[in-house]
Amino acid sequence: MRTGRQKCPDTYNVKFHRTRSGSAGFTLIELIIVLVIIGIASGLVGIMIGRGSDGLAMKTVTKEISSVLRYARNHAVSEKRTYCFVINKEEGEIRLYVDKDETENKDGEDNKEKEGLPVISRPLPEDLRISIDDDDADVQFMEFFPHGNSSGGTIKLEKENGAIFFIDVNRITGKIEVFKDED
After folding, report:
1. Is 58 inside a domain boundary?
2. Domain assignment of residue 124, given as a range
3. 2-6, 55-59, 109-113, 147-151: which is most confident
4. Is CB count within 10 Å lower at the N or C end of the chain?
């Protein structure tokens, strides 16, 4: 028996930590392949983000219109006045008007003319088709009354790429609900 320190036998041909000079690192071809893969991956990510921006724009327009409707309902109740939401397809915009109060008549005359004061005016995207209850009229409107109810209806927003959103306004409660067409 041997005592002390034992050495590995040379019969197994074991070599420890021997490297050739110049073999540490990557070759130029390996680096080029990795850069090409990264370029392809980043290009695909850019395409996916670009496709999603149309959906994001559609959601933004839908949320903006629903917030205008909620504003109209809340202010109609709190101010005890009628608000009118108008879609003007000819001019490509939405507007919100409030009925004139009798105390706002500066002439001192009894002017019962139905004029509204403009509150909000927003342009619509050109590629957006919008309608209330599938009506084809150029000017459509929806009213919100002081008791919280409204003339109601469903606003349909449709992009040319096929994305469709609906904003439903309950006639009795005036509550606004947004949903997407899943077809």
Report:
1. yes
2. 28-101+115-180
3. 147-151
4. N
